[in-house]
Amino acid sequence: MVGFVTLILGVVTLVHYYLWRRLIRSTTPPGRVRRVLTWILAGLGVLAPVTLVGSRSGWGHFLAWPGFFWIAVMFYLFVFLLVLEIPRAVAVLALGAARRRADRRIPPAVAARRTTRAEALADRPVPADQQVTADQLVPADQYVSAGQPVPDDQQATGQHVSAGQPVPADQQAAGQSVSVGLPVSAGQQVTGRPVSAEQPTSVEQPVPAAREVRSDGGSKAGPSLMGRRLFIARTAAVAAGVGALTTVGTGIRTALGDPVIESVKVALPRLDPRLSGLRFAVVSDIHLGPLTGVGHTERIVRMINSLRADVVAVVGDLVDGTVAELGPLARPLKSLESRYGAYFVTGNHEYYTANGPQEWIEELRGLGIRPLGNERVEIAHAGAVLDLAGVNDVNGAASGDGPDFERALGGRDRSRSTVLLAHQPVQASEAARYGVDLQLSGHTHGGQMVPFNLVIPLQQPVVSGLGEVDGTQVYVTRGAGFWGPPVRVGAPPEITLLELRN
After folding, report:
1. 458 with 366, same domain?
2. 378 and 460 in one domain?
3. Per the count of CB atoms within 10 A, which of 62, 367, 462, 495 is most buried?
4. pTM over the 0.85 mark
């Protein structure tokens, strides 16, 4: 448990840091908005592991909906942003290249003149007779503004008096006007006529850096490179947000909707011809839990009964809680109908419950479902016999209740065909040693949310559908429920009607 919590905390922390850099740091300036968004994301980061741990412990069920919803959104934000990293990088590089090309198109004379002007303005000393000492400064409300009188001794000196420049108190005069940052030439009559800002200046104004110079020496206004980078970052963030929310919304609708009925025919070379046509209703990973109601179970039972199967196989991961918590949700299973009965094997989640799997085994017996805990039964049909066996999930080994293939399959008549119920596809390797013809499994959910289906083959030999392991055919159902986020993307829930053929 400690290892699981540590892993979850590490992954969640890294993912949220990446989301912060791409969704907040890259799209907002420093300030209050960034701080608020950072705290919100930090809170969601805490919610994710608390939900995962709490939902398995029972005390965090009230966090299930908001917590698992955010986990799904977080995951797909991460996926979409990763996918957008390449076009984002290409766009930034293209902007930099365009900026460099624009700079190279500036005529050398224009570029030199711009540099000279900037240096001249930066290095020009202030004449001694224009320097103002601290005792000559006037309060800010007496600063000279455009149209305000000019001191007499500055009327013909050519000196600049800029708007907002402080003028010594003993030099303030009436009846004369100030030009905005422009010199007043000698002999110019300023009394009664203000000097307008349109008059030419004695020093050419530098070309603003935010303006781009065309190849013909002209200029055009354009956003800065940093502004374009911000635009790209925000565009990527919006695209990822829309993509994630759309994907999760569609996935919720799929997960909470009716399972798909998959019809599959499986040919078994050693099958007695009299058993050809025997039909199994295969269901797995129902996952009764805090996000499902009794309607979820009733719908599955109704759909299974409509198939009129000969055998019902419930292949593990039925529940995510104790009998006290989820017993009422399981009661509709008593209404399952089939010719030769309903059978159950444990999945890994039965071992995660607070009281272990045994209480559920007894509960299911009371509901008319027979558990196959490392044992087998004979299905007699049309004068022939099929061996139906079941083994416990591999997670039971930690508590001394793991799979026992020898007990379930040893000493049987090898001339008979055998169907094995085993929750995880990986158990097929051991089943093949005992000559099992067909193994029915679940566990994978078909990946549940793309792209997890690409990762599952690292652990399981079959993700979904019909496959083969060491000569044993393996059918893996995607399951009728969901675990964690109530989301299914690219792997709709299913119930399988599987028909044996000779």
Report:
1. yes
2. yes
3. 495
4. no
